[in-house]
Amino acid sequence: MLYLTLRHYEYICAVAEYGSLSSAAEALHVSQPALSTALARAEDHLGHALFVRRQGAPLSLTPQGRDFAKAAQKLVEQARRLEAPDGAKSPWQELTIGCFSDLAPFVLAPALHCLRQTFPQLAVNTRTLGFSQLTQALLQNEIDLAVTYDLGLDAGFDRKIIDRRRPQALLSPNHALAHHSSLSLAELAREPLVLSQEGLSVQHMLTLFKSIGLTPRIAHRAASLEVLRSLAANGEGIGISYSAPAIPHSYDGKEILRIPIRDSCAIEPVIIACHGVPLPESRLSRVREILSNALAQDASDGGKNC
After folding, report:
1. Which helix (H) or strand (E) holds 15?
2. Averaged pLDDT, 59-86
3. Half-sphere exposure in the Cβ direction for 259 (13 Å, CA)
């Protein structure tokens, strides 16, 4: 498997051409921290420096870097010719969006619809991943934007909030708590629970209970949202999920209820994240702004977007 992507090669060529990270980042419509991280990762993987860094002086290629950049430029030009043989397309014509797996059924289709309406020439790729995989993909510039919950991201990531979600308790209509209009974490802590097996998700749930001095009883850790819903519908425990589809039956046809958890501390933002801060006038910034508005509107009115 190739470690360096075509984007890494394009980044190296741009830095070689412009002689500075800031100028190359502006030309590529990416943030300078993201470009710097990608360059460092490429050099680490190759095992040698591509550029000589001197304070106050432009970046210059090392002898090895000169050979590498020359070969990389040929590769980038060949890729451009393959994608746009008439040379008429914009150099920035591809976008990759990552989405947290539980959120994907709710936001991925509206996001694609919006982007194809607004940027008809833009090729949009998607990746559905877990929390840690999304973080790594952003760090390694494998994805440009991620739609996810604000879990596990440090200050190096820029965020735009598109929604705030309250977790839902999922349970069988035969459960003793099924008649409640809302439930508290304290009430749920006394019951066997079904949680996602996703590491950050479980950690987040445990932290919520711990914040009010309680330790929950975890009966099952489910590999997917549908497995979680099925276990809850069959009376194996009360499922807890921020992503709870408005479908009254599980895959196996069992009736299932969803009841909101009322604790204000449990409300979690849904965000569009990118690594570093995109330049205000860059196309990435524009894409994120349009996508944020569309998904925020879609969350509030139940379907409209773009």
Report:
1. helix 6-18
2. 80
3. 24
Q: Give the pLDDT band of residue 302 (cuts 50, 70, 90).
A: very low
Structural domains of the chain sorted by starting position, each given as residue range(s) with its CATH number in brackets = 6-83 (1.10.10.10), 94-164+269-301 (3.40.190.10), 168-266 (3.40.190.10)
What's this model's pTM, rounded to 2 decimal places? 0.69
Residue 283 to residue 139: CA distance in whole angstroms: 19
Q: CA torsion, points 205, 233, 298, 30, in degrees to nearest 10?
A: 50
pLDDT digits (tens, 9 = 90+) for 170-228: 999 999 999 999 999 999 999 999 999 998 999 999 999 999 999 999 999 999 999 99
In the three-class reduction of DSSP (H, G, I as helix; E, B as strand; rest coil), residue 195 is classed as strand
Q: Are the CB atoms for 49 and 65 separated by under 8 Å?
A: yes
Q: Residue 239 and residue 297: Cα distance in Å, rounded? A: 28
